[in-house]
Each structure stands twice: as structure tokens, then as C-alpha cells.
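Re: the request from the purification team.
They wanted to know what the chain is likely to look like in 3D before they choose a buffer screen. I agreed to run a prediction and write the result into the notebook, where they can find it.
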Amino acid sequence: MNSSLNAARRRWELDEAGTDVVDVLVVGLGATGAGAALDAASRGLSVAAVDAHDLAFGSSRWSSKLIHGGLRYLASGQVGVAWESAVERDALLRFTAPHLVAAHPYVLPLTPDVPRAQAAALMTGYRLGDALRVAAGTPRRLLPGPSRLSAGRALALAPSLRADGLRGALLSWDGRVVDDARLVVALARTAAAHGARILTRCRALALAGDGARVRDELTGDEFDIRARTVINATGVWAGELTPSVVLRPSRGTHLVLRPGALGALRAGLHVPIPGERARFALVLPQADGRVYAGLTDEPLDGPVPDVPEAPESDVAFLLEVIGTALDRPLSRADVAGAFAGLRPLVDAVDVPEAAGGRTADLSRRHAVLRSPDGVVTVVGGKLTTYRRMAEDAVDAACPDARASRTARLPLVGAGPVRPGAPGRLARRYGSESWAVRDLMRADPALAEPVALGITRAELVWAVRHEGALDAGDLLDRRTRIGLVPEDRAAALPAAEAALAYA
């Protein structure tokens, strides 16, 4: 089937969803839910997948964009989680999404705040992580190994580092996705190409083992979707639909720094958090010139919001930590925006009391749970392991189905890229980059930049093929223009024009 998602396809698939009985109903269209829809559909099962908002509306778009091998989990003794992460990273780098996921270098500056013994322990950890890379089968040409850098080389990669007292740096490599929301869009479109009905703006009001009561958020109409099995993949909101699921959500905040705030940054940074054994602040330069900096890990108390806010206390904390490694401390004026995501951590009784029961100490291992009415819920985990989470959920929901195929199943855009494709388009659209370019050739007005190098053609493409239904979809998820409020306001007329044009 065609992989294109758009308003017309949504309308006719919505009509079918209210009359047919599907093998699998997936609720939630973040990475895990879209991954479950693809996993089930690629096994030959009939699938409907719904989300109250948009693709990647929840936690999946608020990640650090890391596709990592689980070094932190090795440090805390979670070898199984680290191994799973390395295997899933390999699948993304080599088979499923090589157009979206690639290796990226990270520099850990050896400042006076990093004792020599700690530096030696960290390098040992990096080498253990590299051993996991080898065991997972990832070639070094795709993911280089760690090394020690001189102070001069460290400053060449990160000129904003404080030179005084700098002994050098540790260089490591890990995977990074160009845009986490684009990964989810690729998953959903690939699922659609295998026959799954991808229905955004459809809120599940109540779940049962044989289906759900659903409301079309665009019209207010309510209807039932009948299914032979139901998977709840709503992440941090899972307990609202399946009360037996108990989570301990945590909030992770990132800053969006203005272009140039850290000079000509050619690598990411790992900055040790004072008083923590194996936690680091991350500095992540983006292709559009912005720089993301994170990450906090704070428990969330009270109701779970649809869109969490980044508190000023988190902003101040990150500026202070990152500033410990810089020649010029960052100021609040360097921050163009901020975003926060919520982790759906599985509650556990074995968090050491000595650690204060912090969410930072909870395992990132995922869990697949079955409620008394038969609904299968998948929670926990992280972006890197979405595919394994989805596979496990479908295995639990459909034990008689054929084996999963997704470990080697290329996503939309993962095919060969035609020579001469513009680099920025190739990194975001892969084999579809020329189709986007063709829109500009057919109508040169669509080549006009909107913001951050993004063109009007990309907005039109998102409406026609990526399921964007309104300006928020375009600015906040198909692109990330909306992370900076003033950029969002400036691009809003172009987004509205693209919706009318398409």
C-alpha cells in the first residue's frame, strides 16, 4: 500500500475503523505505539492505531535525540539493558533507519573537576561500551571507538571549553537521530504501507480487551473500534486508561541555545554533574545551528500534563552545570527556548533507600503488562529500544502470530539516495529527498526558506504525505521550528499557507 498519510486517507480509514474488526488496536502513536503498529502489520495482522493528538505528540519528541548503547546502564550494573540498547542501536544504524540515525562524537573535558581516577574509570566504561558495539555487530566504520584527546584537539572540537587547567578530553561516539519526531513519522508511514490504519486526533475514552470507545477530536463523534486484542502504548499516560498500571514519571528538561552561544562546536559535550558518579549534562549541536543542552531527571508529582513545561529551576541548574566546563558561562539570554519530556518509568520496590528512591535510579528496562480484561500495556524503556518494546508487546498480545520482522525492515526513506541530493534533505528524507526537491522544481515558490533552512516544499510534503493536519503538526513535530517561540510565530503564516496549498 501507499505510505502517504493525509487528511483524505484519515477520513476513509476512519469510516472503515468503525465497521471492521481488526486483529490489533494500538492506542498511542509515539515511537513505541507506531513501532507496535508496524510490528503487527508487518506480521500480516490487521491493525488500527489511534492517538488523541498527533504522531509523536507525547514523550517521543522530547528526547535527547540519542540512539545510545547504554553506557550509563553498564555503570549501574544493568548489563541486560545496555546489551539491548547496543543491539537496537545497531539495527537503526545499519538496517532500519540509516538515513535518520548516524554516529556522533562527544567530548568529555578533563577539567580539574574530573580527577584522574575518575577519568580512568570513564575510559574503561567507554571501552566496555565499545566491546558491546563489537558484540552487537556494529562495524567501526559506522561507530568509531573511544580515544584520548590532547587539550589542543579538544579545544579544536569545542572552542568554548575553558583552557585553564584542561588536561585533554575523552572522545566517545554514539548514535544520534536527526529528529526523534521524524523517526516516529517514518514508523507510522511504514506501518501504513503495510496496511495499518493510522488515525490521529482520535482519543481512546475507554479500553477493553476487545476494543475501545473512541472520539474523533475533529468532529466530536464517538464510535467503537472492535479488536481481537488491544495494546496500550500511551507511555506516561498509560495508567489513565489502564488503572492497574502504576508509573513513576520523571521530567527531563533540555535547553535550546541560540546559534553561536557555544562558538563553532564540532562535537557534543559530556559535562559531569557535580556529586554524581555516572550522570552527565549533554550538549548537542544541531545541524540548524541551535544547540540542545540537557538533561534533568526530576520526579513528576500530580496530574500528567499533555505538554510539560520546563521550570526555571531546571534552566538554572543546566546553565550552572554546563558552565563549569566553559570559558564563558552561559547566561539566561543565551537560551532561546526550552522543552521538557516525561519518562514513563516503571514503579519498582527495589530502588535503594540510600539513593532516596530517586527516579534517576529507576531502571530503564521496559515492562509488558496484561490487565485482567486482557489489555496489554507496554511501558518504560527509552527511544533507542522502541522496536524491541513493540515486538515484545505484539508477542504478548498475539502469541500465535508469526515472528517479528522489524529488526531488518527498512523504514520509509531508508533506500538508496540519488547522487546529488541536497545534504540537508538527504539527512531528513533519505530516498525521498528528490521527491521533495521535485516539488520545488514544479513550483519555484516552494523553494523559499521558512526558517532554519526549511523550505515551503517541506511543509507541503508534510501535509500531503506525513499526516500533518494543522500548523502545530507542521511547526512542532514535522519540523522543530516551534522549539523557539519567536521562530514559531514568524513561520506560522507559511504553515497556514502550506495547509491551504496542499
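For the purification team: The first strand starts at residue 21 and ends at 27.
Please add any questions underneath this entry.
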